[in-house]
Design brief:
alpha/beta, 3 domains, nine-stranded mixed β-sheet, four-stranded antiparallel β-sheet, 19 helices
Length: 530
Amino acid sequence: MSGSTTSSERAFVLGLDGVPWRLIERWSDEGVLPNFARMRDEGASGTLDSTRPPTTPLAWPSIATGVWPDKHGIYGFQNLSSEYSHEMYTSRDLSQPALWDQLGPAHVGNVPMTYPAREIDGTMVTGMMTPSTDREFTHPPGLQAEIDSRIPNYEISLDYPEYADRPDDFEDAVDDVLAKRRDLMEIQMDRAGDDWQLFFFVYTAPDRFQHLVWDMDRLRAHYAQLDEILGDVMAYTDDHDADLYVVSDHGFGPIEGLVYVNRILEEEGYLFRREDEGTRGALASLGISRDAITGALNRVGITEEALVQSLPRRLVDSVAEQIPGDHALYDVDYDRTVAFVHDTGNCYINDTERFDSGIVSPNEVPELKADLRAAFESATDDDGDPLLVVHDGDDLFPTDEGSPDLVVCGRGVYESRSGMATEIHGETGTYDASHRNDGIVLCRGPSIASGATLRGARVVDIAPTLLHGIGEPVPDNADGRVLFDAFDDESTPAATKVERTTVGRVESDEAVDEDFDDVADRLKGLGYME
């Protein structure tokens, strides 16, 4: 496959969510994963450094666009407003053109953060963050009927809490999802025929499985299935003389404890909870909860979706503030709070320019960031080792003034959580493992070098490398670089200067007014949300 003096004109991205390099290296060396071994022998491979934090909603858009979150616009699962309310990020929030906006025909399947489906030259089946298959989740819309016909009971994701104490049933359910996703890929391959330039398909099953099951025997069996899928994709790309990129958005590893970072802020006097004497506390004392209220509404035919669609957002939020339930943001007294952590480790200083009830002057922010960083880094385990790694938001996201002030990540076997808690330390419960920074990248194709090792590859490097490899220009605002070590010395991409092009910002004024409760429940089941 390597050593050609020409380059491919098309590329396939096979995404494997949450796959760590050390497992691929170990099991391909042992002969358990023969197709991954072929990818390493016949192509270029190495670790792939993720975003900070290393999470799905940041990393997959970075892979697809070649830029960090400050340019593509997605910082987590939930977008925080100046009024402290939050709504789910969607594809409408992606401001940098993705590969499928630059290449065509393109076929995009199950990629996280692609809902609602965009109108592209090709097909799209949305993935993670799709509320349900009752919504329109394909482009063109008629593709949905074909999926219903060929894949009965197709699912976007599983109800993870349902399997908390049933590992055998969970493994069977994950296998079923994997098989149906494989069927979906075949449908899109059938639709693509021979006329395509980009295929971008993601399997999220490994990430979902590993969160709840970190058992090497079970994982080895799951990875063997992934290896079979890889074999099919390798044959497909060979038939179409295409470059193949196998990538994961982040790695994975076991966790031994949770760290509730908002509790650190509370103990240090930076965050204050609302007093229980208010309406919220009174309702709670009467046993009135969000679930009880929505259950009563559903019994008379009124859904949360109907309320959200028919009432102003500000009114919905004001009511939600008073109802006890899973609303960590609504438990904070912002009139006294200096800083808080939202979503996956995003720490915001409650400054007067950013937030409606801000109490911190902007000129105090730099000094306060240093104090907050010291507070987070002072949290240690019983051996005196730090629990957290803290990043400066200005360093990670230099082009966006609205980015988080700090990003707080768990260190080693600890995972940070933003929910309100009474203790800093927490048990992992049903969660066995979680994200690490080191994912995978393996590439193989007409101009890819055999047996090459890629060093220092980052998620933002995939799009520029793919584009240059097939002879297409790279956006001039890309944060990533072309991984020239991947190309054979005699190949066209190795001998060709990177061509640059200007891309416009993706603008979308179209609101996505959806009921994302099912999505939130799935995210909570994986530990992504509180």
